[in-house]
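debug: dumping io for the single-chain case to check the tokenizer round-trip. Nothing else runs in this session.
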Amino acid sequence: MLSIENMVAGYGKAQVIHGIDLEVRSGEIVALVGPNGAGKTTTIRCITGEIRPVKGSVRYDGANIADIPPHRVASAGIGCAREGRNIFGNLTVYENLAMGGYVIRGHLKLRERMAWVYDLFPRLKERTGQLAESLSGGEQQMLAIGMAVMNEPGLLLLDEPSLGLAPVVVDQIYEKIAEICREGASILLVEQDVGLALDISRRAYVMESGQIRISGPSDELGKDPYIIDTYLGAR
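debug: decoded output
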């Protein structure tokens, strides 16, 4: 579904990504983990079209999307819940979800997707008329993910969905992420919490200093001495 080959990218003259390869297959959750500043978010921005890679390809369903603008990436079937949530605080929950479904044609389809999101996150339905800025952190994260899935994406990008949330809320969010995958979306999950990401994903890539240090099935990486010593400790 998603294939990145030999991608090089950065900001101006500062190269951040140094020739990475990454793949997300249909129906799986793949984790991209590593320390802060490793290049994980830059990788996401290359997929969404916010940054144009200097070299290499980004393919979605076989088509190279590295040179198309973000709105066309979204229309192609890629949804993204970015780090920091990026919701519209001065709009209601309903209005935020409607904004997330801006490429949907037809009021009936929009209502169907809205109903699906409300079934996924009943708390959002309870707060449909409430301003997004008044929601709790966990509710705002639910809203960010809800906006990202309004267009029924084939590929969902999640950038640090656990950031700043209490453990009990993180568990709730991750249960919903698994449910979204079961409903048919493939997911690329970016996380600093390596243990959490390995628990939910099928495969994982560990990024350090803009390069893929190690990759493989998540259950195997969870037993790797380097991963245990560097990221998991006494978990």
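debug: round-trip ok. Strands lie at 2-11, 14-24, 29-33, 55-60, 63-64, 78-81, 155-159, 186-191, 203-208, 211-217.
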